[in-house]
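quick one, two chains, predict together pls
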Amino acid sequence: MPPESISIAGSFETPPLVRPQRTRRGHLASRHVTGWLLAAPLAVVLLAFLVLPIIMIVVVSFWTATEFSIVPAFSWENYEFLLGSDVTWRVLLNTAKYAVVTWAITVVLGFTVAYFLAFHVRSQTWQTALFLLCTIPFWTSNIIRMISWIPFLGREGLANSALLSWGVIDEPLDWLLFSDFSVILAFVHLYTLFMVVPIFNTMMRIDRTLIEAANDAGASGFQTLWNVVLPLTRPGIMIGTIFVITLVMGDFITVRFMSGSQSANVGRLIQNDIGLLQYPSASATSVLLLIVTLMVIGILLRLVDIRKEL
Amino acid sequence: MRTGQDLELIHLTKRYGDTVAVDDVSYLFRGGSYVCLLGPSGCGKTSTLRMIAGHETASQGSIVLCGTEVTGLPPAKRGTAMMFQSYALFPHLTVRDNVAFSLKMKGVDQAVRHKRAGELLELVDMTRYADRLPSQLSGGQQQRVALARALVTNPQVLLLDEPLSALDPFLRVRMRTELKKLQRELGISFIHVTHGQDEALALADEIVLMNNARIEQAGPAREIFNAPRTEFVARFMGGHNVVALPQGRFALRADSVRLAQNGTEAVVRAVEYQGGHVALTARLAGDQEILALIPEGDFYADPKSPGDAVRLAWDEGRLHRLQA
């Protein structure tokens, strides 16, 4: 909505804002200098550790390599190979599949947990306590959390032996570990909290009288959820979505451990290239991944305006 | 006189743990009347309103609307509608969708509910703004939308929770005229919670003055103002002096006290010019303060300053005996 259409009829004339006049030019200049100085440390850090490496990656992606040497040159060779190979597309598709399935599960879980915490837990003490409980898994490292699934899900693992002893199954389930199932399970385990936090945060900002107003208008619990809570939680969902999508798209270690090196995603492709010292090829794959991820985020940001949440 | 539209509270009680918010309140709200629930903050007026609306469950007692017991019914099934203090408009919906919200919840199809919303918006003169979001409206406009949204279900009783408190004084006076006009046109009951006695006097056919979880006094506005039953009522309604005489305590309207040649001796403490009147505070012997509202013309014919000795007089007939 353009600002000029926001005219408030019947409101009173307000005097124009009077800005304090600066009398000395020196004062003005020093304010600018202070501003630049304050912004400088972060700018330097971002430049050195984010912008430069990315430029480096882009540059290297145009170099060529043989088995034993890397040749600085300008060549489309890496991209031609990458885009021409159907392995790339299959792996990219697999990466997208992981991202979408993980997103779908974490968004449902995250919304449910956040909704419970925000609207059903009345006492603030309990709210804080339960929220901290959600963060407990983060007290150990990602990799340890992942590996701890292996004895649980394996052929002789806890899950299989329990199911066998209950008589639910006759022989161990093979798909529990080293499968897409276990990869997605680990992703969900690792990243659900990144969905819970922003959604919970947005929900806590919803005015509780809106729920009462919906109730007053005859909305059932589900109708209130669908027509009031969900639309107002959209920015939080979107932020969580960006977290989860980028984390899953860029992951390689979870896929490696949990699929037992049987599935691949783009991260694994890059890791393989690096292992073979094929840096130019790894760089080209990275650039492709970066572009795809940025495109996804660009689309998401067009769908929902998250600026008011930040 | 009872009509079919009456709302009756019968021994209504609300407890929060050990605190009693509303203590055994019984009252009959006549159909089609404008009633103000008045009282200081924490007196139980809002809890009473919320129990009538169904947003708070009654600990004891019952609520009967149009001959039907509604105590246990959900808010939307009672025939009441509530307008919230902060308006509680849905920020993600346009004005039209806000007004049509309850119809949408009932499953009314879009064309019908938009038509009905259009009628309501016309009633509150907001048709032009139907496609705006609430954040693009001023406070007064948001209030009109909230009003339209509450009225869209044709309630028998409209409950208003301090509806004017968020507006600036000028707009408040204008909206209060409109509320009264709307109530007269619609012919339904309005129950309006407020802590402002001027608002209550201006609007109400009947005032229910609450204090400490109970009804202190209820009746037509003029009766409450002219015949306060207790000292609390006299002081809360303002414009009254409470005079302790050997016969007991009396309420004396400030505008019936005048400066005179012979009367009770007093010393002027403060003089406040209020436009049509001058508020003169004087101290009588025995440390009693008396407020006199003296017509401007009379006062400036013979002006007084703080510290001056004056004589105050009033007609014996204007003394109103207080019961407590």
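The CA atoms of residues 225 and 237 of chain B lie 6 Å apart.
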